Every structure is written in C-alpha cells, then in structure tokens.
Amino acid sequence: MKNSSKKCINVCKISQEILERNSLTGQKLRQEVMRIVELSREREFCHCSKPSSNGGCTHCLRRLVVNLLRDKGFNASLCTSQWKRTKKYPGGRHEYIEILTIASERTKQLPLVVELEFRDQFEIAKACDEYGKLVALLPEFYIGKPKYLSTIVRILCEAAKKSLKEKKIHMGPWRKRSFMEMKWSYSLKQRSVDESLNNLISLGLHENRLHLSAAPIVVVT
C-alpha cells in the first residue's frame, strides 16, 4: 500500500506540473476564453426542441461559445470527431472547440483545444481514492495545447487501469487511451502528437470542423 501511495503522489505531482505548465501557455488568451465560457453559461443558450433539465445542452453551449469567441476576433471552430464501431471499440462521436492562434515570434498556426466537459470525461463511479484525487486535480474545462492534453490523457488512462484492476473491475474499451484520444482526434492527429493516433484511420474515424463565421487569427504573446 505504501508503494501504491507513493506512486499516486508522484503521478499527482506530474499531473499538477503539466496542468500548471499548460496554464502558463497564452495566459491572457486563456483568461479571455474562460470569461467567454462563463458568460455563455449565464445566457439562455439552448435552442433544442427538448432541452435538458438543467436548462440547456452542451451542444448548444459549445455553439454559443464559438460564436462569442469569433465575435471577439478568435479563429474558433466547432470540431466533431466520429468513429465507427469495431471489434475493439464502440462507435461514437464527440464535439469540442478548437482555436487557432499564432505565437508572437512565429508564423505557424498553433491550435488550442477547448473542452467544456473535461473533468467529466475521466469520472469513474467505483474508482479507488487515489484515482479520485487525481481526477480532482483536473479543471472543469480544458483550454490548452494538444500536446499537454495528450499527456494528461495518457496519465489518467494509466491511472484508471490500475484503479479498476485494484477494484477487480473490468476496464471497458471506452476507458482506454486510444479510445479517449479519438474524442479530440482532429487536433491531436493533425498536430502529430502521439504515435498511437496513426491507427485511428483504420478504425473508421471521421472528423470535421464547423467554421461559423470568418475571423482573424489571434496572436498569442
């Protein structure tokens, strides 16, 4: 148990360092995006025929966030990843937001992933306490580079595997790293972040980006 606790502490420290490093990336930009997300939540954003009990759905919220971001001059897109069912994985789709930026010293476009349900993606009802502490470190929504996202996914999926093994619970394929990464496949695969993503095409993966209006590229300083 002592070794398990030490490993958990080390993993938590690594995760915290990654999150802190990510928070320093385009800090002013991140703060502005967070302000827009909070502003969106205060509005009546859902236009579905059957809105959820909490007054709106995340799909409508994402669309509103993208519109407000683009009104502020951000090059924001609503991305949808879709993948077919295979023998290894169930089929599915996932929406998230991507913002294209340019660092002040570069000309190459840099993507930022905005995931409004980030912590929820890793919640496990019967996980061990160590895993629960790790998930508690995660922000409610993620705003940052794909490479940091990929690292966080790897750490959390490895921790989930150990947690479920400790509880003697079968780990569903939707908990595995390769499946989790499919949710943000466009940003991760297009930026060649991880070798494991080379197999996504064979799984029948489709991605698209919905540009809601024209907007200039934001420069990150």
From TrEMBL:
<protein>
    <submittedName>
        <fullName>Uncharacterized protein</fullName>
    </submittedName>
</protein>
